[in-house]
Amino acid sequence: QPGVYAAAQRTRGFKETLQPGGKFTVVASVPANWSRENAYNAAATILQQHPDLIGFYANNDGMALGVVEAVAAAGKSKQVAVFGTDGISDAYASIKRGELTGTVDSFPVLTGQVAMEVVLRLISGQKISRVVSTPQALITKDNVDAFSTKDNIKLRQLLAQQK
Question: How many whole angstroms separate alpha carbon 160 and alpha carbon 163?
Answer without folding.
Answer: 8
